[in-house]
């Protein structure tokens, strides 16, 4: 019952965090942890009341897990090949392919470590399982947090709409960036229909080394071509990454009259990380995402996940150790007590 009680406590904490309506990784972590502890609590009750049913449940999970991993690996490899064919060769575009191959190689690595023999091989194999398990749990928590943040309502009458840049192709707006701009235009038109002052649009993006002009300039041109009045477009053309997008856009936003909220538009896979960065740079802003081509989503989410891990790497080292200690404790509570 202790595991079920802990799951209930996690759900209460999740509800409190959810009520704040902001970008938070903790929401997904709390919800996933609550579901896992609830499942483990049910398993514990089965072990105590019906050992045969518990053994059957464990066998089903043991058989289903490699099948699920195999299907996921094939999907990721296929997606990775599609990414290389449609988007070109780069590390970011290789992520889903690398992840798929890694899922296939992982069991072979474990078998090799166990065949190495001795206590040392077992310890290394256990460490590999711990790291892989934590990485998988953290990725699921990241996905759930992203979905929860995407489900929050967006302001209908913002005073400003900031559009984050994503790179030009031969100086022109490519489909990915066009999707962000179209989402911003739809929000702008909805705000105009709602009445009051029309929002100011802030297309944000500087000039990369392979770009003939700043992204903000090309984005502003696209907005004007779509019928947005030029006096309501204030491009930001110095930023080179998301953090700078937000910091430099805030200077423009702070100069806009009115007390309404700020809406930030990016791609759906980028929403959570943009929201986390915006919390300190444009407080109380809400980030919304434009839809991305389906084939692009797996690699894009993996890239965002890796970026978040790198940004908080030492925190994740501590969490991985806590994760391992928790697994050992739960195993002991279910099967050894």
Automatic annotation (TrEMBL):
It comes from the Bacteria. This is Uncharacterized conserved protein. It comes from Microbacterium testaceum (strain StLB037). CDD domains: YdcF-like (cd06259). Gene3D superfamilies: HUPs. Residues 160-306 form the DUF218 domain. Keywords: Membrane, Transmembrane, Transmembrane helix. One of its GO terms (biological process) is peptidoglycan metabolic process. Pfam families: DUF218. One of its GO terms (cellular component) is plasma membrane. The chain crosses the membrane at residues 29-47, 59-82, 94-116, 123-152, 314-336.
């Amino acid at each position: 019952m202790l595991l079920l009680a802990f799951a209930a406590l996690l759900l209460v904490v999740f509800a409190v965090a959810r009520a704040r309506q902001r970008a938070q990784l903790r929401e997904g972590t709390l919800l996933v942890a609550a579901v896992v502890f609830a499942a483990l609590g049910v398993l514990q009750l089965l072990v105590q009341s019906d050992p045969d049913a518990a053994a059957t449940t464990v066998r089903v999970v043991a058989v289903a897990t490699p099948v699920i991993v195999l299907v996921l690996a094939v999907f990721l490899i296929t997606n990775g090949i599609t990414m290389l064919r449609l988007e070109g060769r780069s590390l970011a575009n290789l992520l889903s392919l690398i992840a798929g191959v890694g899922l296939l190689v992982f069991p072979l690595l474990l078998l090799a470590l166990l065949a190495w023999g001795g206590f040392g091989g077992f310890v290394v194999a256990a460490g590999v399982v711990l790291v892989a398990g934590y990485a998988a749990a953290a990725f699921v928590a990241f996905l759930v947090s992203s979905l929860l943040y995407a489900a929050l309502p967006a302001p209908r009458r913002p005073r400003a709409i900031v559009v984050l840049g994503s790179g030009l192709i031969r100086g022109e707006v490519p489909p990915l960036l066009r999707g962000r701009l179209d989402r911003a235009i739809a929000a702008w038109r909805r705000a105009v229909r709602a009445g009051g002052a029309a929002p100011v649009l802030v297309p944000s993006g500087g000039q990369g080394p392979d770009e003939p002009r700043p992204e903000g300039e090309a984005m502003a041109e696209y907005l004007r071509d779509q019928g947005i009045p030029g006096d309501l477009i204030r491009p930001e053309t110095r930023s080179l990454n998301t953090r700078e997008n937000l910091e430099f856009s805030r200077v423009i936003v702070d100069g806009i009259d009115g007390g309404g909220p700020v809406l930030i538009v990016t791609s759906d896979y980028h929403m959570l990380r943009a929201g986390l960065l915006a919390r300190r740079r444009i407080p109380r802003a809400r980030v919304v995402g434009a839809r991305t081509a389906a084939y692009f989503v797996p690699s894009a989410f993996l890239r965002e996940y890796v970026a978040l891990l790198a940004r908080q790497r030492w925190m994740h080292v501590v969490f991985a150790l806590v994760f391992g200690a928790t697994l050992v404790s739960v195993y002991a509570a279910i099967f050894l007590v």
